[in-house]
Design goal:
Number of helices: 25
Strand order of the largest sheet: 1-2
Helix content: over 70%
Structural class: mainly alpha
Low-confidence stretches: 1-10
C-alpha cells in the first residue's frame, strides 16, 4: 500500500492513537521470528505466525481464520491485479512470476549439470582460482556483474560458485553471506535494475511528478546510500584479509577443521547428485546463462508509449522460459541427453527448489496477513510521530526502515510505504535533506531484508548455496549489524551537518577502523581463516606423507623378511 502524508495522522496525538490501534499488526511477525529462532523449524514457525494473525482477522473463530489464511495465501501467490472500469484485471505476474522463475532456474541448473556444462565450467575455469581468497572474490565479482535483479543474482551465483567454495572449505554460511550481501547491494545501487524502477516509482508517487524527474532523484540517492556501499566494502575487505567474526567464524573454523561446509546443519535444498554427460563443454553452461541474462535484460528494458512493456517478475519468468528452450536447441542435437532425460530434469529441478517455494509461500502470506491487519498504518503513524526533528530525520527513518523490513521480510514493501512519506516533506526540509532521508530509508530497507529470517532474500541466498537457512541468518547477523551501526552514525553526522561528504569521511574512517581492529585481534588470537586453512591443509598433506612413508617402510620390512 502506498501512503502519502495527506493520508496519515496530522498530529502527534492522532499518530499515537493509530500506533496503539494497529500495534497488534506486529504480533504475527514477532511470533514467527521468535518461534523460528527457538525451535529452528522454519515451516511450523511461519505457519503459526500466519495463523495467529488469521485468528485476529477471523475474530477468534478457527474455521474463519483458516479460510482467511488460505484466501490470503492464494492472493499472495497469485499475479498482480488492479481494478479497471469496475473489473479486476491482471497487471503482471506478481509473486507467481517469482515462483515460476525460481522453478525455471532449478530446472536450468539441472539441465546444465546433466549436459556436463557445470562440470566443464568447473574443470576449466575454477582451476584458475588457487586460493580461498580467490574463490570468495570470484563469488563477489560474479555477483557484481548480475546487477539487473536480486532474485536472478542469488539464484544464478549461488549454484555456480558454491561447489568451488566447497573445494576450499569455505562454509556454506559464508558463501551465502557473500552472495546475499553482494546481490542486495549492487541491485539497489545499479541504475539499470528492477530495484531502480521500483524506487523511482515510489518517489514519483510521492512527488506526483514525471518518471524522468523521479529517476533523477533516485540517482542522487545512490551517492548517499551508505549501507549497501559499506556492506560491499566490508565483504571485499574481509575476504581479502581472511577476517571472520562471531557466527561466521564458527562456521568457517568448523569447515576448515572438519571439511564439513554445512556446519553440521541440515541443508535448505536437495543435494541430489546428477550424472553428467562426458561430452559437455564450457559453452553448455555459458550459452544458457547468456541467453537468460540477455532475455531478462531485453524484456525489462522494452518500452511501449514510454512505459515498460512487462513488469519485472513477468520479464524474469519469460527470460527463464527462453533459456530453457535454448537448452533444447543446444543439447538434444548433440545428444548430450535424450528427450526423456531432458524432461526428467524438470522433476529434478523442482525437487531442488521445492523447500524454497514452500518457505516463500509462507513468508509472502505472513506479509499479506500483516498488511490486512493494517501494519502499514502503524508504520506510517510511527514514522510521522518520530519525524519532528529535521536534522535527525535520516537516522530516524533509517532505524524505522530497518525494523519494518526486518519485521515484514521485504525491502520493496518497506520503501514502498516509507518513501512516499518522506518525499512530501521535501518542501519543509529541503531537497538535499529529502534525498538523504530517502537514502536512509533505502539503506534501512536493505539491512532489514538482508538479515530477516522471514525475508525471501535470506531464504533464496541460503537455498541457492545449499545452506541451512536459520544457521545462515544467525551467522551473518552480527557482521551486518556492525555495518548498520556505522551507517547509523554516518546518517546522524550527515543529517546534523547537512554535509554528505562529511558523512562519507566518517563512514570511511569507521569502516577502516573496524576492519583494521578486527584484523589485528583475529591475527593475535590466531583466528585468521586463511592462516587456519593453510595450517589445516599443510597438516593433512604431512599426514598423507607419513602414511605413505609408513606403507613404504612396511613393504621394505616385508621384503627384508622374505629374503
Amino acid at each position: 500500500m502506498i501512503v502519502t502524508m495527506a493520508e496519515v495522522a496530522i498530529t502527534a496525538d492522532n499518530a499515537l492513537q493509530n500506533m496503539g490501534q494497529y500495534f497488534w499488526a506486529l504480533l504475527p511477525t514477532v511470533v514467527a521470528i521468535i518461534l523460528a529462532l527457538v525451535t529452528k523449524e522454519v515451516y511450523i514457525s511461519l505457519f503459526l505466525g500466519i495463523f495467529v494473525g488469521a485468528m485476529f482477522l477471523g475474530n477468534g473463530n478457527p474455521i474463519t481464520a483458516l479460510a482467511e489464511l488460505f484466501n490470503l495465501m492464494a492472493g499472495a501467490l497469485g499475479p498482480s491485479t488492479a481494478v479497471v472500469d469496475g473489473q479486476t484485471v491482471i497487471t503482471g505476474a506478481g509473486n507467481a512470476g517469482i515462483l515460476i522463475f525460481v522453478l525455471e532456474l532449478g530446472i536450468l541448473v539441472s539441465l546444465m549439470a546433466k549436459a556436463g556444462g557445470s562440470k566443464a565450467f568447473g574443470d576449466k575455469v575454477f582451476k584458475r582460482i588457487k586460493s580461498r581468497k580467490g574463490a570468495m572474490l570470484a563469488t563477489a565479482g560474479f555477483g557484481c556483474v548480475l546487477f539487473m535483479d536480486d532474485y536472478f543474482n542469488r539464484l544464478t551465483v549461488g549454484p555456480i560458485m558454491q561447489p568451488l567454495n566447497d573445494k576450499y572449505r569455505i562454509s556454506r554460511a559464508k558463501t551465502a553471506f557473500i552472495v546475499g550481501s553482494v546481490s542486495a547491494a549492487v541491485c539497489i545501487l545499479a541504475p539499470i535494475s528492477s530495484w531502480a524502477s521500483a524506487i523511482s516509482g515510489s518517489i514519483g508517487e510521492g512527488l506526483k511528478t514525471t518518471s524522468t524527474e523521479a529517476f533523477g532523484y533516485y540517482v542522487k540517492t545512490i551517492f548517499c546510500n551508505f549501507y549497501p556501499i559499506l556492506l560491499l566494502l566490508y565483504v571485499i575487505a574481509t575476504s581479502v584479509l581472511g577476517i571472520d567474526m562471531f557466527g561466521l567464524f564458527k562456521h568457517e573454523k568448523h569447515a576448515i577443521e572438519t571439511g564439513d561446509v554445512t556446519g553440521g546443519l541440515e541443508m535448505a535444498s536437495s543435494e541430489e547428485v546428477i550424472k553428467s554427460s562426458s561430452k559437455g563443454a564450457i559453452w553448455d553452461l555459458i550459452v544458457p546463462l547468456a541467453v537468460l541474462i540477455a532475455s531478462c535484460c531485453t524484456l525489462l528494458l522494452l518500452k511501449k508509449d514510454g512505459e515498460a512493456m512487462f513488469d519485472t517478475n513477468t520479464a524474469l519468468a519469460m527470460g527463464g522460459c527462453i533459456a530453457i528452450f535454448s537448452c533444447i536447441i543446444l543439447y538434444l542435437p548433440r545428444k548430450l541427453m535424450t528427450l526423456k532425460e531432458f524432461t526428467g530434469c524438470f522433476g529434478t529441478g523442482f525437487k531442488s527448489v521445492a523447500e524454497v517455494i514452500i518457505i516463500l509461500a509462507f513468508a509472502w502470506t505472513l506479509a499479506s496477513v500483516c498488511e490486512s491487519m493494517h501494519l502499514s498504518e502503524f508504520v506510517t503513524a510511527f514514522a510521522y510521530w518520530m519525524g519532528d526533528a529535521k536534522s535527525l530525520l535520516p537516522a530516524i527513518f533509517f532505524i524505522v526502515s530497518m525494523g519494518t523490513a526486518f519485521a515484514t521480510g521485504t525491502s520493496w514493501g518497506t520503501f514502498g510505504i516509507m518513501v512516499p512519506i518522506v518525499v512530501p516533506m521535501g518542501q519543509q526540509i529541503g531537497p538535499e535533506m529529502m534525498i538523504l532521508t530517502i537514502a536512509a530509508v533505502l539503506s534501512g530497507s536493505v539491512f532489514g531484508d538482508h538479515v530477516s529470517p522471514i525475508s525471501d532474500a535470506t531464504i533464496l541466498s541460503a537455498a541457492s548455496c545449499k545452506c541451512n537457512h536459520l544457521g545462515y541468518v544467525k551467522a551473518q547477523f552480527p557482521s551486518a549489524l556492525m555495518v548498520a551501526g556505522i551507517t547509523l552514525v554516518t546518517f546522524l553526522v550527515s543529517g546534523l551537518t547537512e554535509l554528505i561528504w562529511l558523512g562519507w569521511i566518517v563512514a570511511v574512517v569507521l569502516i577502516i577502523a573496524l576492519i583494521v581492529t578486527a584484523y589485528f585481534i583475529q591475527r593475535k588470537k590466531g583466528r585468521l581463516t586463511d592462516k587456519l586453512y593453510k595450517e589445516a591443509t599443510t597438516s593433512a598433506a604431512e599426514a598423507v606423507k607419513e602414511v605413505a612413508a609408513g606403507e613404504v617402510a612396511a613393504e621394505d620390512s616385508l621384503s627384508s623378511g622374505q629374503e
